[in-house]
Amino acid sequence: MCPLSRWSVASGSKRQGSPNQWEGEREKNCSLTLKCLTSEETGVTALAFNCPELVTKFNKAVRAAEENPLMAGLEEVEVTRVDKGKMAHVSQYVATRDNCCILDERFGSYCPTTCGIADFLSTYQNKIDKDLLTLEDTLSEVENKTTEVKELIKAIQVSYNPEEPKKPSMIESATQNSKKMVEEIMKYEALILTHDSTIRFLQEIYNSNNQKILNLKQKVTQLEAKCQEPCRDTVQIYDTTGKDCQDIANKGAKQSGLYFIKPLQAKQQFLVYCEIDGTGNGWTVLQKRLDGSVDFKKNWIQYKEGFGHLSPTGTTEFWLGNEKIHLISTQSPIPYVLRVQLEDWNGRTSTADYAMFKVGPEIDKYRLTYAYFIGGDAGNALDGFDFGDDPSDKFFTSHNGMQFSTWDNDNDKFEGNCAEQDGSGWWMNKCHAGHLNGVYYQGGTYSKASTPNGYDNGIIWATWKSRWYSMKKTTMKIIPFNRLSIGEGQQYHLGGAKQVRPEHHVEIEDD
């Protein structure tokens, strides 16, 4: 550091090379130098006036030193204007906080001057130069980026057309797609949960079924063990067989029940209920109505094969089957007698017998034929009944010679379908006077209003009860003609017939 007290002024034409020097202006070969004296030097240096302008330049230099902000804290500066041959003198000065406005400990105990500042800056110049270089590089990079941005702005300005319709925002489109994807994900997650529940439910069913299979296998094992023993039917079927029930009775059977018979033209035996009485008569039962437990509205095949249930006690409803009835009734040169047994809802019973009963083959639609009415207090309904409204009533309600009809195989004489209207199968004419396969009406009495079509469709026998009265029980059974008089207590006369009681006033069916 060079305090003011150590400055001297010199002149000369030679530039000083010391780093502690400050050079003034130079004109031609004349120069003014302010020199910092070393500690050994004292006093002031005389001015050599090689150039006439030095006095003025010195005065300017001193004033500049006085006015320099680094020198603003000087209390006293003694300046003697220099004339030719005279010297300038600067009084000694000591820097304090009171007289130095920028006193800094880095400059020691001296107030910094231009020379001290130069020395300070030279110390940090390298670092500053590096910082300046870095700053220049940064500015250059910024300039390059600025150029790129300008080029990009130009490209945007070229591509931008304010008249073009506004394009959808990519952000909005991406947001909508994202929402849709989230919704789809939520939907599939819900579906997965539902499937998980379904899988658990099916797994439970699977486990349950596995358990049931195990139980069934155990049951099969038990049944197989039982089947190692001879099987016995819980329903008693007698061992005696024959071509019909009378043949079985002739072989010594005395109990009514279930037997196998095989008519002469039959390909295999079949089960029937035989009604065997104490005199050895064996009736083959064709039909039973007892309680309405069996619906008799069946199709052609069912009436052909038979339906209902056969029981050892004869207490179930059934139709034996047209094919079986045909095989039994046509197998022997000895004709059969048909007996119709009726019971009303008061417990009263009656019968009607017909000689030489036969049912033809299926090719002839199981046609019904008989020779004549033998007798019985139920009257001869199969020969028709005069209902009193038309002379043709009896003719069109006769059943002898009629083919069998069902709702799906109509063979009657009516322009409609009697079997479909009456809900049954029977040997219909136009339509009937005796009809044992009709609808079972509890209590017996019914009316037009209680029927679907207004026709008499009950279990009727018009020569014993009104056609609006349905029987409680009926049985149709046959026996060889030569067994009829045995044990009956009376001998029927050929052609004999009871007349219907006069109190029966009934209406004819509407055609």
Features:
511 residues, alpha+beta, 11-stranded mixed β-sheet, 3-stranded antiparallel β-sheet, disordered N terminus, disordered C terminus, coiled coil, glycoprotein, Fibrinogen gamma chain
Q: Please estimate the helix content.
A: 25-40%
Unreliable segments of 5+ consecutive residues: 1-52, 69-93, 489-511
Quaternary organization: single chain
Structural class: alpha+beta
Overall average residue pLDDT: 78
Shape by Cα distribution: elongated
**What profile does the largest beta sheet have?**
11 strands, mixed
Could you characterize what this model shows?
- With 511 residues, the protein is α+β, with helices and mostly antiparallel strands.
- The chain has helices at residues 54-67, 114-159, 170-227, 245-250, 300-305, 322-329, 393-396, 418-422; strands at 7-12, 22-27, 30-36, 237-242, 257-261, 270-276, 282-289, 307-308, 318-319, 336-343, 349-359, 368-369, 372-375, 434-435, 460-461, 473-480.
- It is elongated and about 180 Å long.
- The strands form 3 sheets. Strands 4, 5, 6, 7, 8, 9, 10, 11, 12, 13 and 16 form an 11-stranded mixed β-sheet that branches. It has a 3-stranded antiparallel β-sheet with strand order 1-3-2, with helices on one face.
- Its main location: secreted.
- This is Fibrinogen gamma chain.
- Residues 135-226 form a coiled coil.
- Heterohexamer; disulfide linked. Contains 2 sets of 3 non-identical chains (alpha, beta and gamma). The 2 heterotrimers are in head to head conformation with the N-termini in a small central domain.
- Residues 8-21 have a biased composition (Polar residues).
